[in-house]
């Protein structure tokens, strides 16, 4: 269209291309020609992208309602969702909330069996472990030392604030005065590092 500015022209052309790709699909079944009016043809390269965009939009609209009805944790890969809920949550009510958003897009739900569920070909098992606070103080000293050492080496990935919060929790469970045997002393440099003293050039002899 020549009556549009360049920006609007690009939008118009993009919409036209999307309409052709998603609404002008034909197939033959039992020697009859059909036109697909809804959905995206199977195998269409646009499928995963449009699914991700739409489900992201759905999540943004329903996030508060889902959390108010018991959703604690929600992670998604394209259109497969992994959800943790409160113990007394009505799963059917959550499913109704999701399915009421668009009658043409209906979700199915799979719940855990024997405390396990498969997600993206990975078997996830829920365990009930009675731990106090972080539970890290039940680990062997050697394991905890290795864990903290590896964590410190990857500070570019782990936020410094989060690492310091972890150390503060551990300091409550491992007071300095209780780290007095040979094994526990290896934690001292990590949990209670010596203060760093900065000297100016004029102080150096």
Describe the protein in words:
It is a single chain. Among the domains are: 46-125; 136-191, no CATH class. The protein is an alpha+beta fold and 205 residues long. It starts with 5 loop residues before the first helix and ends in a 14-residue tail after the last helix. Mean pLDDT is 76; it is low at 129-136 and 197-205. Helices cover 40% and strands 15% of the residues. It is built from 6 helices and 6 strands, in the order αββαββαββααα. It comes from Rotaria magnacalcarata. Pfam families: RVT_1. This is Reverse transcriptase domain-containing protein. Residues 1-138 form the Reverse transcriptase domain.
Using the CA coordinates, give the radius of gyration.
Answer: 28 Å
What are the secondary-structure elements, in order, as H or E? HEEHEEHEEHHH
Kindly state the percentage of residues in helix: 25-40%
- Low-confidence blocks of residues: 129-136, 197-205
Major sheet characteristics: 2 strands, antiparallel
Mean pLDDT: 76
Secondary structural class: alpha+beta
Shape: elongated
- In total, how many beta strands? 6
The N- to C-terminal Cα distance equals 79 Å
Strand content: 15-25%
- If helices are DSSP runs of H or I spanning 4 or more residues, what is the number of helices? 6
Lateral strand order in the biggest sheet: 1-2
Domain Reverse transcriptase: 1-138
Pfam families: RVT_1 (PF00078)
Protein name: Reverse transcriptase domain-containing protein
């Amino acid at each position: 269209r020549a009556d549009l500015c360049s920006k609007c022209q690009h939008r118009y052309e993009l919409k036209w291309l999307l309409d052709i790709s998603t609404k002008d699909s034909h197939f033959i079944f039992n020697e009859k020609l059909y036109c697909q009016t809804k959905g995206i043809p199977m195998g269409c390269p646009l499928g995963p992208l449009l699914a991700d965009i739409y489900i992201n939009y759905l999540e943004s609209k329903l996030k508060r309602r889902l959390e108010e009805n018991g959703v604690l944790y929600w992670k998604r890969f394209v259109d497969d969702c992994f959800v943790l809920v409160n113990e007394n949550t009505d799963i059917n009510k959550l499913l109704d909330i999701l399915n009421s958003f668009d009658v043409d897009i209906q979700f199915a739900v799979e719940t855990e069996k024997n405390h396990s569920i498969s997600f993206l070909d990975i078997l996830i098992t829920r365990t009930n472990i009675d731990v106090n606070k972080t539970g890290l103080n039940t680990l062997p000293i050697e394991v905890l030392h290795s864990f903290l050492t590896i964590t410190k080496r990857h500070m570019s990935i782990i936020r410094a604030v989060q690492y310091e919060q972890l150390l503060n929790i551990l300091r409550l469970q491992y007071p300095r005065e209780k780290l007095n045997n040979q094994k526990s002393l290896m934690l001292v440099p990590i949990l209670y590092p010596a203060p760093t003293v900065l000297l100016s050039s004029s102080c150096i002899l």
